[in-house]
Amino acid sequence: MKIAISSDNHLDVNKVNISDALEFQAHWLNTNHLDYYLYAGDLFNDFSKTKAYFEQLQQLTTNTRIAYILGNHDMLNNLSFSEAEHSHFPSYIHNQFIDLPNSDWRIIGNNGWYDYSFSTYHDQLKKVQTWKNVYWLDSSIDQPISDQERMATVIAQVKYQLDLAKDNNKSVLFLTHFAPRQELLAAKPKEVNTPRRERFYQMVNAMMGSDRLGNLLEDSNIVRYVFYGHLHGIHPPLTRHGVTYLNQSVGVSNKRINEWQKDNLYDQWLTTTRVINLP
């Protein structure tokens, strides 16, 4: 079983021609005979565009099954909280699973979320929430519950899926967007050298993920690979208690930010897209 995984292509932010991107990715998937293409979130700043893109990509790759979850950017526009949690859009696998035929492997998808635990402000919830409402783009996402409640929902969903997989004697490949381990974050930049910059740095870290998810995945004893996004740049693989965490982010390149190691989206996508062969 041949599986490709990518995330954080940010096609709109990167000002990519959508028709060209579809043609390029479909051709590569078809030429390399991929059985599955998994995507770990952040394609557009608009769910309707993300949904349409994967529907078109699926039409162009008849021998490759497309499966995706959402990142925070995908949730910014044209998606309700209820739809994000309970929808049945084609190829969207949040809180769902795919059993790979003729094998003991199961893919489990969950968007994930964060609970501020990666930050020194983890016990100052109101302070972080106030900062988020002013500075962080996620404040525009439809969310009738707190971030801590949303993360608790994620944990309950994943625990249910893992218990089900264990009952079915499955080995798990887990797909999520946010970081499941704090040690996956990059080292603190040297530029964070003033109280103001330290505060900003800690506030951003609050929105990166939660160790609660990593603990749950590792304690299950059935998860083998975790593919995640959200953290741009280079993040080496990490293996803990039999679980290997792999970051698949393409990242952003524009006049203000350059997170790419290659000169264009297509070379960057080829470099960051991971292919694994499962027995």
Written overview of the protein:
This is Metallophosphoesterase. InterPro entries: Calcineurin-like_PHP, Metallo-depent_PP-like, Phosphoesterase_putative. It comes from Limosilactobacillus vaginalis. Residues 1-232 form the Calcineurin-like phosphoesterase domain. This protein is an alpha/beta fold and 279 residues long. It has one domain (2-277): Metallo-dependent phosphatases (Purple Acid Phosphatase, chain A, domain 2, 4-Layer Sandwich). Helix content is 34%, strand content 16%. The mean pLDDT is 97.
Quick recap:
This protein is an alpha/beta fold and 279 residues long. Helix content is 34%, strand content 16%.
Termini distance? 6 Å
How large a portion of the residues is in β-strands, by DSSP E? 15-25%
**Overall mean pLDDT:** 97
Please identify, by name, the CATH architecture.
4-Layer Sandwich
Strand order in the largest sheet: 4-5-6-7-9-8
The CATH homologous superfamily is named Metallo-dependent phosphatases
InterPro entries: Calcineurin-like_PHP, Metallo-depent_PP-like, Phosphoesterase_putative
Domain Calcineurin-like phosphoesterase: 1-232
Protein name: Metallophosphoesterase
Organism: Limosilactobacillus vaginalis
Summarize this structure as a short list of keywords or feature phrases.
279 residues, alpha/beta, Purple Acid Phosphatase, chain A, domain 2, six-stranded mixed β-sheet, 16% strand, globular
